[in-house]
Amino acid sequence: MDFISLENATVRREGKIILDNVSFKSKEGEHIAIIGPNGAGKSTLINVLYRSVYPLKKDDYRNVILGSERWITSELRKRVSLVSQTEADFINTGYKAIDIVCSALYSSLGFDFHHVVKKEDYSKAEHELERVGMLDKKSRPVNTLSSGELKRILLARANITKPSLLLLDEATSALDFPSRADFRELVRSYTKESTVIMVTHELSEILPEVKRVIAVKNGRIFLDGKKDEVLTQKNLSLLYERKVHLEEEDGIYSAFC
């Protein structure tokens, strides 16, 4: 079966269609960027894959993730991880950074009295914190960290389970451009281990390893193809309905109006 096979996904919220009969397939190891205007349905699409949003139940709707349609949520969370501003807001608690990272192994947010945590699991958490440059902050409550530090903690939490699929939904929002560049380089190191699907407003965040771009507009897939074929001034101008100027250097794109 396909690594991902989404067929005829329609999401309606408060009477408004957010996703309109969206379908696409992808293979394992195929890194994808999803772009499009505000309100196009990009984040909803990511959350359909993450199964935190469920489309309308229709006879022709299918959602195959990692080759399977049916998942126990706690098991899926160990195979598919999400980094987003919503997730960052959710974990912004008084729990220590190391507990936020380690508890992903238990499909929980932090630990309670009923958890019995293995010493080797804390060692895994320390390894992931060191990888994102946050080991020295392991005992800090996460609600005392900066936005950039919090995103790194979330990336460590996302990767401690060694997921097959890493979803990034505007993961660098609220970060300045040097921090975005640092975060991009961190994510690049994970592309050899996980398939990455990322939603972004900033073309500069699209990893060189990403070879496919899906453009979403008005809840539908507007364009889907090779990165260099989708990311053209003509296509972006049509997508955003205004003249867009595009630049590319060393595989990194940037756009402005």
From TrEMBL:
GO terms for molecular function: ATP binding; ATP hydrolysis activity. Residues 4-243 form the ABC transporter domain. Signal peptide: none annotated. Pfam families: ABC_tran. It comes from the Bacteria. Keywords: ATP-binding, Nucleotide-binding, Transport. The keyword Ligase does not apply. The keyword Transcription regulation does not apply. Coiled coil: none annotated. SUPFAM superfamilies: P-loop containing nucleoside triphosphate hydrolases (SSF52540). Belongs to the ABC transporter superfamily. This is ATP-binding cassette domain-containing protein. It comes from Candidatus Ornithospirochaeta avicola. The lineage of its organism: Bacteria, Pseudomonadati, Spirochaetota, Spirochaetia, Spirochaetales.
